[in-house]
Amino acid sequence: MRSSRQRNFILISVFIAIFVIAVTNFSRYLFSQAELKPLRYEVEVVLLEIPLYVIDNKGNPVEDLRPEEVTLYENGKKQKISHFVLVQNDSPRIATITRKYPAARRQILLFFDFAFSTPTGIIRAREACLDFIKEKILPTDLVGVASYSGIGGLKILSHFSSDREHLFDVVNTLGLLESKQRIAGPVGFTFPRIDQPYRDETEADQFSPARMADDRIAILQEQLNKRLARIQAANVTDFISSLNTLSVALNTIQGRKHIIYFSEGFDSKVLTGRAQEQVSGETSVTTGSEFVSRYVLSRYIDTASQFGDGALRTQLDGVLNKIASADCSIHTVDIGGLKTQAGDLNQVSGQATSVSSIHRRQETLTTFSRETGGQIFRNINELDQPLENLLKVTNTYYVIGYYPEDKKKEGRFRKIKIQTSRSGVDISYRKGYYEPKPYSKYTNLEKSLQLVEYIVKDISSSKIQFESCVLAFRGKESICQVPVFLKFPGRQFLEKKRKAINLEIFSYAISSSGNFKDFFHQTLTISPQKSKKDLQSFGIKYYDLHLLSPGDYRIKLIVRDKNTGEIGSQIQKISVPDYEKGDLAVSGPVFIQPGTDWLLTRGFDPHKPGGRKIGINLPLDYPFIMDNKSFIPGVFPVLETSAPAQFYIKIYNLKLHPQVQIPQTEMSFEMVDGEGRSAPLKSMEFLRNPFQVKPGEFDLLFQANFRDFTPGYYWLKLTIRDLLANQEVISQIPLILE
Fold this sequence. Notes:
alpha+beta; Rossmann fold; 3 domains; 6-stranded mixed β-sheet; about 25% helix
């Protein structure tokens, strides 16, 4: 005992000779993680959230509707409303609301129709959308981009995203040009290339369109004109089939989806086999500022008398009904512009247009909007007007939540009916939904959109349980290393008999401005029979790496079972320091645990980098190094109160005294319990002298004893003060004591 005390005294004396205790005034948080909780099994409870749009007889949104004025039915049975929330997208509270209620997010799909449009119209629509993305959309808005052509069919160019840089790039090229500034990642998102993402860019640089796509649009249209000498029913049938595919996929996304359909429409003769030469005045002069709901418009248009009931029309009606049932509204924008003279007439798909043909095309667009509760914009030349108008009319709505009593999953359609006792108002809502279907029946697009929900919205799930450790380390120049460790308890994979464990691992680094900055994606395949012993007692540990510039990030971690579609997801917050700036920074504390009985797997190999890390001279070395030896960090470590534990800290940019070349720093350690109560960690000692890697950069190795604390959930909080620089950083890590 005496020998141990003498050794501790010598080590502490060495420490004090380098790190002198004093007081500081400057403080900032360097590293933080989202709150972590002990592992638990999730009880599946289905919550449905229904956006409800309410307008008065003047078309203005109603903002004072009360829950007691609303009644909701499912399949004719009254449901108990769990929450009733007013959503206003321009409100300061919108970020908080959308985090709590995923269905509250405003979602807009920009849909470009190459098949039934002229090049001039498409170019005008693209330019309006570029300005829309740059100037109009809000940080919480989610925008997707899709296109349709007679050659390529339906293409999802971008899933719903709030990354304006990505969206601008997608609309700018419309899939006709390959972006030289960005690289494609999983499920359709793009990321800046590592060799040029971190330079300072002005707003104009970030959003400067490359007009080369104009020529490509014209070339594509010429190809279409040669292939489609005239519009045939087969072409419309293919388009309707694509709409059906889109409706099925969008049904997997919660909340209202506003599809803005840029087109000049197809001739209604294709639906009936006969021309409708005369169109009523009410339907031919609708302006872009007029809001038309499915209820209001039906008072003026007799659909059957104009379009008949042919087989193709029946097919279209069914698809539009499915789109409405998926909580989608189609807002049609006639991109042909105002045509009042014969000289204004162009060709669409190789066929000369006439005034009557234009009217028939517009009536097709009217059908799309009327049957799905959307708006109609036609006879306008300024296409930014409908986009601004849509933001106004979709700004205010309610989100109604309820838990269906019927929990069966048989793929049936369940009807929803909402009534209000408030008089003088019109309401719009989805008319029903399909029960979940087996994951094995998902299309590839549905599988992608399932992931998109978790990527762009703050949805957490523990159907696949894992814990994570995300840290920041110095890299090369302005590119920093952000290693990610995941830990999967193995017993969860043995509960169901399976021949193989197939896990898809996704991680997205999203900046504070909502831009996608980095990703990694890997698939793990493990045999439960061969690894049963390790899985029964321990589990799987996985390592990968993000490369990021300094800034604040949300790391979206998503793990999906490829066989069942079950998902586990977490969000970790991390602030990556600007190491080159010279401010005090710290990585850790990181507990050192052997982990030899865990199945260890690495997604990132510095010798075989993939994705956006290929071929670039970057800081790719494994960062967890002590005494030239790598170690496995503890991921949400479980420690014993009766045994000592070792942890590692790396400190950057400590200022050295000009005469003696040593820092003057104080450190303190606290244990913070689940109730927020703090107590000092006194049983601490160095396992070796602080090691200076380079001037101002130190590696520290400690040993702690937690015998003074009761078992439970804690945060180990570290405070480091640089007295010479008058700076302070705080770092913390969660742990469990047994």
